[in-house]
Amino acid sequence: MKQASRSAGVGVERACTEVFRSAQMTVPIAKLSFWGVRGSTPTVDPATWRYGGNTPCLELIAPDGTQIILDCGTGLRTLGSRWAAPNSGKTLETHILVTHYHWDHIQGIPFFSPLYVENNEFQFYSFRSKFLGRDSLKQVFEAQMAVPYFPVDMSAMSAKRKFKELDGGDSFKIGENKITAHWLNHPQGCLGFRIETPAGIVAYATDNEPGDAKLDESLRKLAAGADILINDAQFTPEQLVTTRKGWGHSSWLEGVKVARHAGTKTLVLFHHDPDSTDRMVDLILRQAREEFDSVFAASEGMVVTLGAPGDRVQAHMPGTRTALRREAQFHAKVCGVTEAGKDFEEETVVRDISLQGALISLKHLPRLQSELQVTMEAPGGDGVQTMKLRGYVVRIDSGEEKGCSSVGVVFTD
Ligand SMILES: [Zn+2]
Ligand SMILES: [Zn+2]
């Protein structure tokens, strides 16, 4: 299997990398990328596309070039397809920290193409499960690739793999970065990881539920003074005390409490419920932002920079609408909230627009899954503007208007 190049990334991502590289020359910068943010099971529901449907996988590039991957959910496959070996002169090894063995945290392993490349080296870390005993993670690998669950066995994985067992409280160094493992409250056990880099401290606390005094304290220690806390926010505060109590997960409100108590600068809401649509995650984020100053909802493709000038961590979102962009000159009124939390209203011009689809009234009845050429007209700054788009028919509702059908299209290139 050939190594793919990470340069296949979208423009915005590349721009961020360049900013990252130039800043790296002066101050230590760490880059944290979110490849999978969904909890429990991947989603392909279009209502979840903005935050993303892949299960947990994060990648941290420390200032010394050390590459650390956190969890091996289905997001690991995407990371593998953009793969570039770590660029540190000292080692080519990639370090992979696995929090626990639930499916959503291991499912990407068989689909991670760099594992099938002979020259790659991986050091895995996880805990000894009381259900599996010695070499738990290795056993998990073998079990998930055993016949008849997967077409090739472990012998096809030609990359060098080493496994290290960790316990809660263990602390060790990778390059100039210090890693500490902390137990979290989750069925069958889960480790949280605190990574101290010269650019800042990342605390990764996926799957955990509040309510166990000792483990709640363990979480606060994990997050103490961190620049960024990535915390389980799968459920709403209401669900957490009623229907989802004991399921091993947390809420945005619990994350805010921990962040406040532990003096964390930025909170990232993580492990979104597979039943949470983008609008539901939007609401969760809005509520959290009312209670805590610096909060993001983890989003697939999001890149967070630590150590860049300024107090806060900086987050960049991936470019998502490069394919369907059309130039326009539409007058528009824009209302919103400033970074400082003030409402604003402004008259402006929309300069380009990307559309996903439209609902069109037609006297003719087009065939489902056929193509329509759609030319739209809109009043612009200097006369009428036209916009030409190709629509793919996804729905036809007849009879709503007399002699007309409502035709739903999504726009394609
Ligand atoms: Zn999980
Ligand atoms: Zn879990």
General description of the model:
The chain is α/β, with parallel strands linked by helices and 413 residues long. It has 2 domains: 311 residues, Ribonuclease Z/Hydroxyacylglutathione hydrolase-like (Metallo-beta-lactamase, Chain A, 4-Layer Sandwich); 88 residues, Thrombin, subunit H, CATH 2.40.10. 17% of the residues lie in helices and 36% in strands. It contains 7 helices and 21 strands. Strand 2 and strand 3 form a beta hairpin. It is globular. It starts with 10 loop residues before the first helix and ends with a strand. The N terminus is likely disordered. The structure holds zinc ion (2 copies). One zinc ion binds next to loops. The site of one zinc ion (ZN) has 8 residues, from loops.
Provide a short characterization of the protein structure.
With 413 residues, the protein is an alpha/beta fold.
Notable characteristics:
36% strand, 413 residues, alpha/beta, binds zinc ion, Thrombin, subunit H, 8-stranded mixed sheet, disordered N terminus, 21 strands, 2 domains, Metallo-beta-lactamase, Chain A
Classify the helix fraction into a percent range: 10-25%
Counting structural domains, the number is 2
Q: What does the main sheet amount to? A: 8 strands, mixed
In DSSP terms, counting alpha (H) and pi (I) runs of 4 or more, how many helices? 7
- Named CATH topology of the largest domain: Metallo-beta-lactamase, Chain A
The count of strands amounts to 21
Main sheet strand line-up = 6-5-4-3-2-1-14-15
C-alpha termini separation: 31 Å
Can you tell me the CATH architecture of the largest domain? 4-Layer Sandwich
Stretches where pLDDT is under 50 for at least 5 consecutive residues are 1-24
- Write the element-wise H/E pattern from the N-terminal end onward: HEEEHEEHEEEEEHEHHEHEEEEEEEEE
Shape: globular
The proportion of strand residues reads: 35-45%
